[in-house]
Specification:
The chain has about 290 residues and is of the alpha+beta class. Helices cover about 30% and strands about 30% of the residues. Strands 7, 8, 9, 10, 11, 12, 13, 14, 15 and 16 form a ten-stranded mixed β-sheet that branches. A six-stranded antiparallel β-sheet has the order 2-1-6-5-3-4. A hairpin with a 2-residue loop joins β3 and β4. Bound molecules: pyridoxal-5'-phosphate.
């Protein structure tokens, strides 16, 4: 039985109830986080909570939670769901309104919801199978740096990928490859790891930051730089990253193999560093 948290209460997920007048339901007026948990420990919790704080500030929503209160909530949720490897979903909305009005209500009682599902552990063998992607025009708004629950364009772009036999869509904006519908983008050419710089056009991924950190630590050449769409088609390797899917090599793009259609040498090195980093954090936090 999955245990969830809703407005100060832990309860079975299927018993959670939110008002139909909740602004999350009416407008998608809220923000969220997805936090992986390894061996009972929330991974990169500080970074996730910092991003949550930035998202909340950007949508001008105040919640009565500081770092310690969030940490306690998440720790208890993990324990109540039996530790191990999980994925915690956390969402804050601007709460229920007496009427449906775009303007903020006078009195705001945020709805705070969290739950957790077992995290499917991807072995190296599974990760090596990679994913297929297609390119699509980016139809999102100008504040993709906010981790907003309003995800209709992302949903439609991902669905386009599925209908084309792929798992992810790589979004193209003004001729530049930006990111995936729910993952950050890395392109490797001549042993240089490139990723688009942080801006309002992309979500600053926690996994993206860690990959850059590991690249610096292990002396890989890397650049935060704009990536013209055409460079995708000449790439030696393409990776997509996210908290739950880690670093996935893209082996097919628009039904054509990326390079030789096999995971590349730099991916093999980076994924080892990533797994090693995860294992170390688990051990040091015991
Ligand atoms: C649009 C988008 N880009 C990138 C990411 C990857 O972010 P993270 O590594 O923090 O999971 C996500 C995650 O959901 C996303 O939705």
């Amino acid at each position: 039985m999955t245990i969830a948290y809703l407005n100060d209460q832990f309860l079975p997920l299927e018993e959670t109830r939110v008002s139909a007048m909740d602004r999350g339901f009416l407008f998608g007026d809220g923000v969220y986080e997805v936090i992986p948990v390894y061996n009972g420990h929330a991974f990169r919790l500080e970074q996730h909570l910092e991003r949550l704080a930035r998202s909340l500030a950007a949508i001008e929503l105040t919640v009565p939670f500081d770092y310690i209160r969030w940490k306690n909530l998440i720790t208890e949720l993990i324990q109540r769901n039996d530790g191990g490897d999980q994925s915690v979903y956390l969402q804050c909305t601007r709460g229920p309104s007496p009427i449906r009005d775009h303007a903020f209500p006078e009195k705001i009682t945020p709805t705070i919801f969290a739950y957790s599902i077992p995290l499917y552990t991807r072995t190296l063998e599974i990760l090596s199978k990679g994913i297929s992607a297609i390119t699509v025009q980016d139809t999102r708004w100008q504040r993709c740096d906010i981790k907003a629950i309003t995800l209709l364009p992302n949903i439609l772009m991902r669905q386009r990928a599925i209908e084309n036999g792929a798992q992810e869509a790589i979004l193209i904006n003004n001729g530049y490859a930006i990111e995936g519908s729910s993952m950050n983008l890395f392109v490797i050419k001549n042993n240089i790891i490139m990723t688009p710089p942080l801006s309002q056009h992309i979500l600053g991924g926690i996994t993206r930051d860690l990959v850059l950190e590991l690249a610096a630590q292990h002396n890989f050449a890397f650049q935060e730089t704009d990536i013209p769409e055409v460079d995708l088609y000449a790439a030696d390797e393409i990776w997509l990253t996210s908290s739950n899917r880690e670093i996935m090599p893209v082996l097919m793009l628009n039904n054509q193999p990326v390079n030789n259609g096999q995971p590349g040498a730099l991916w093999r090195e980076m994924i080892q560093h990533y797994q090693h980093f995860k294992a170390q954090v688990g051990l040091t936090q015991q």
